[in-house]
C-alpha cells in the first residue's frame, strides 16, 4: 500500500521540454485546469438564466458575490471594489482546488508549497506596486518608519517592519500548504487504520475508526473553506495597507 505522502507526488502525463527546461503536463497541471473548468461551469450554470426569483444555482452564485463583496467592504472599503474580480477569482480558485482534492484519486495542488508561494509572491508584488503607484516610492518607504516613534527606536523598528513585510508571501503560502498537506496526510493514515483494524474486529476495530474518519473528513472540508477565506481576507488586508499605508 502506498504511503500517506505518495498522494502528493508529481506525475508526468505528457512529457515536454523547451530550451532545456522540463515543462511537462503533470497531474498538478490537470488538477488546476479542472479547477478552472469547474469554476467556469459553476458561474455559467448559475448565471445562464437570470431570474427575479433566483434558482438554487443562481442563489449560490449571488451568495458568493455578496460574501466577497462584504469581505472587501469590511476590510478595504468602497475603494477596494475595483479589486473585486481578482479577490473573487482568487477565493474560488483556492476553494475549489481544496475541495477537488477531497475527491478519491484526485490531486490537491494547494498542498504544494511552490504553487501556493507563487500565488502569494505575485500578490505581494502586485500589492507593492499598487502602493508605490498610489503614494510614490518615498511615501511608501515611510510605511516602514511609523510616525511618532522616537528616532533611536527606528534603528530597531525599521528592520523589524521590513522583515515583517517581506515575510508576508511566506506566511501566506505556508499556512495554506501546511494545512492542506497535514489534513490529507492524516486522512490517509486514519483511512489505512480503518481497513487494518476492521479486518480484526469489525464493530470495534472498523466502525469506530470509520466514524472518526467521516468526522475528520467533515473537518477537512471546513478547513478547505477556512483556508480559502483566510487567503482572501489577508489579501484584502494587504491591499488595504497598500491603499491607505497604515
Structure keywords:
8 helices, mainly alpha, single chain, 246 residues, two-stranded antiparallel ribbon
Outline the structure in words.
- The protein has 246 residues and is mostly helical.
- It has one domain.
- It is 72% helix and 4% strand.
- It has eight helices and four strands.
- Strands 1-4 form a two-stranded antiparallel ribbon. A two-stranded antiparallel ribbon has the order 2-3.
- It starts with 11 loop residues before the first strand and ends with a helix.
Give the class from helix and strand content and strand pairing: mainly alpha
Shape: globular
pLDDT below 50 for ≥5 consecutive residues: which ranges? none
Estimate the strand proportion: under 5%
Q: Can you give the mean pLDDT?
A: 87
The count of domains is: 1
Helicity, in percent? over 70%
Quaternary structure annotation: single chain
Radius of gyration: 22 Å
Number of helices: 8
* N- and C-termini, Cα separation: 53 Å
Run of helices and strands: EEEEHHHHHHHH
Biggest sheet: strands, sense, closure? 2 strands, antiparallel
Strands, count? 4
Question: Looking across the biggest beta sheet, what order are the strands in?
Answer: 1-4
Amino acid at each position: 500500500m502506498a504511503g500517506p505522502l505518495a498522494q502528493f507526488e508529481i506525475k508526468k502525463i505528457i512529457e515536454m521540454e523547451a530550451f532545456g527546461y522540463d515543462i511537462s503536463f503533470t497531474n498538478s497541471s490537470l488538477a488546476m485546469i479542472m479547477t478552472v473548468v469547474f469554476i467556469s461551469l459553476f458561474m455559467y450554470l448559475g448565471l445562464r438564466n437570470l431570474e427575479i426569483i433566483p434558482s438554487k444555482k443562481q442563489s449560490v452564485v449571488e451568495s458568493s458575490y455578496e460574501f466577497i463583496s462584504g469581505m472587501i467592504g469590511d476590510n478595504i472599503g468602497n475603494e477596494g471594489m475595483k479589486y473585486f474580480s481578482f479577490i473573487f477569482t482568487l477565493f474560488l480558485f483556492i476553494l475549489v482546488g481544496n475541495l477537488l482534492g477531497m475527491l478519491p484519486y484526485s490531486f490537491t495542488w494547494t498542498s504544494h508549497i511552490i504553487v501556493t508561494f507563487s500565488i502569494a509572491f505575485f500578490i505581494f508584488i502586485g500589492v507593492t506596486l499598487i502602493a508605490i503607484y498610489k503614494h510614490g516610492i518615498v511615501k511608501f518607504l515611510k510605511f516602514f518608519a511609523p510616525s511618532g516613534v522616537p528616532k533611536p527606536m527606528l534603528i530597531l523598528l525599521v528592520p523589524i517592519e521590513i522583515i515583517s513585510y517581506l515575510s508576508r508571501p511566506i506566511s501566506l503560502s505556508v499556512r495554506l500548504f501546511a494545512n492542506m498537506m497535514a489534513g490529507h496526510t492524516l486522512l490517509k493514515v486514519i483511512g489505512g487504520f480503518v481497513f487494518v483494524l476492521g479486518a480484526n474486529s469489525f464493530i470495534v476495530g472498523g466502525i469506530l475508526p470509520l466514524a472518526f474518519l467521516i468526522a475528520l473528513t467533515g473537518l477537512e472540508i471546513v478547513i478547505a473553506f477556512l483556508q480559502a477565506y483566510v487567503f482572501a481576507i489577508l489579501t484584502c488586508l494587504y491591499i488595504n495597507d497598500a491603499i491607505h499605508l497604515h
